């Protein structure tokens, strides 16, 4: 049976590898604006030994480790990240599934059928399949979460200092992979506080060591950002969504994951979010009372609770993209483990002997129903994006590949731009991706001083994409009201303009 622990997990890992192959078979890994930031920094690392983005400043909105990771692979392989991204994600998703299977083989109680069902649910989760179809830092971060759980459990079992430092080191690297990795630091810190097997003096020392090591790289990264750019994580706007609204969006993602139709989200999303988070609180409290903090199941529950609360609260105070499956993807596996392992525990320990078979059959039926539901979602996405020859939405999908404007940017004579005259755009990452040129993003409406500064510029070029409406940026109509723009090149989906210093159409 020990051999089966590995062979069946390897089989599921191969399935995971193939799943990402399928979803990247048309146009490779999906490329979003974030992906371009990562790849441009990785290219600069290979070419110039720094982690500057295409606009010649250090990468700030995102931590440094993922572009460094891509840069190292690019340097060793002499291959561009866009070219190897799909294969890299295939291996990382396969590794994620292997680590998941390895961990579940050590659940108490454990079950091969349970492991097979849950591994299938992980592979087929639409959120994870989307994440591992793109060049996104979550692909690495989710792996780091599982590695942390493995190592931190070794610490909880032995209380050996070497495992504590190792776990803190993983947390430190994760913190410079995703800023949300402070949740890993929080998970370890919370479990250290709750651990009643350590004497107070030793516990205090371990908390200090863990805290210092785990945040060390993040502090260094943020300090570097502040010294070189004046901000620690780039310009951030205050949130425009309330706690209640974010809780609803949180629940909506879980509704999507369990197959509830969108029309029923208003009824189920908020109650589901509350039940999920309170359920984790209750499970953690139960394990604390039982002195069972050192199980993988409890580690998963603790991380899912800390991460879920962090996303909801941070979205309440800081504005970023609406809570969606990508943002919650690091929580999926721990949350799935948390609730399904409770079901397994109930069947094995608490269900009456004459009811265990019926309870197990019901659990299997529910899991098969869920797996079928998400398989159908994945099948539809495959049909829409791959079978119908469209590609993963982003800068390599058919809309962009067939765009006359994008193709013009790829091959245009850059001599149309006068030297030392600034180029601005509503999608500066798209300008770089298609033309290789650097440009500046037009200012956000929220930052009034930046808007005023922009309108005082004596001469500039403007590359505008008509199909990329961003309500947070000043729009083309507003610019045209103030600046007399001359059309250099016009297309259906965009245009290149020049402002040559002629008198404004209205007073600034």
Automatic annotation (TrEMBL):
Which UniProt keyword terms apply here?
Answer: Membrane, Transmembrane, Transmembrane helix
Q: Where are the transmembrane segments?
A: 12-32, 53-76, 82-104, 116-134, 140-156, 163-187, 207-227, 270-289, 296-317, 329-347, 359-377
Protein name as annotated = Glycosyltransferase RgtA/B/C/D-like domain-containing protein
> Would the keyword Transmembrane helix be found if you checked this record's keyword annotation?
yes
> What broad taxonomic lineage does this protein's source fall under?
Bacteria, Pseudomonadati, Bacteroidota, Sphingobacteriia, Sphingobacteriales
